[in-house]
Design a protein that fits this description.
With 139 residues, the chain is of the alpha+beta class. The protein has two helices and six strands, in the order αββββββα. It folds into two domains: 28 residues; 108 residues, predicted glycosyltransferase like domains (Thrombin, subunit H). Helix content is 24%, strand content 42%. The protein has a six-stranded antiparallel β-barrel with strand order 1-2-3-6-5-4. The chain is globular, with a radius of gyration of 16 Å. The two termini are 23 Å apart. The N terminus is likely disordered.
Length: 139
């Protein structure tokens, strides 16, 4: 888990506020803003649809992406994230848990929870996540 003391207290505060407002806070990990090109592969009957997207933010458990196509909640996808400083894309699987229409027509944001990160990609993903956190602290 990647959380400092301050993050844990802010999470507790958000959950307390969510109980008061009736909204459910489900985040367990900090989110880091990034802009990383990604390809989603969605199986449809006898074919696989490939969709270009950009990661808006990422955490240890999932990511928020921007794309030009509306996906349905519950859709399972294969993800190839083209992180900087990596030779090959980070390959993982995920499930769409949230879809939001963006300000511009035909643009959407989707929350995807990771369901599986391939074994040989775990270290690459962890390095990408740690490097991104480190760079975000330099600003």
């Amino acid at each position: 888990m990647i959380q400092g003391k301050k993050d844990k207290s802010s999470l507790k505060e958000r959950r307390k506020n969510s109980r008061q407002t009736g909204k459910n806070e489900q985040r367990y990990y900090i989110r880091i803003d990034v802009s990383v090109p990604t390809i989603l592969s969605i199986r449809k009957k006898d074919a696989v649809e490939k969709i270009k997207a950009y990661v808006k933010n990422v955490s240890a458990s999932g990511m928020m992406i921007h794309l030009d196509k509306k996906l349905l909640t519950g859709v399972e996808t294969s993800i190839d994230m083209h992180a900087p400083d990596t030779l090959n894309p980070i390959h993982c699987n995920g499930k769409v848990v949230r879809v939001i229409a963006a300000d511009k027509p035909g643009k959407y944001s989707c929350g995807i929870i990771f369901t599986r990160i391939e074994e040989d990609n775990k270290n690459t993903f962890l390095k990408f996540l740690c490097d991104t956190i480190y760079r975000s602290g330099e600003k």
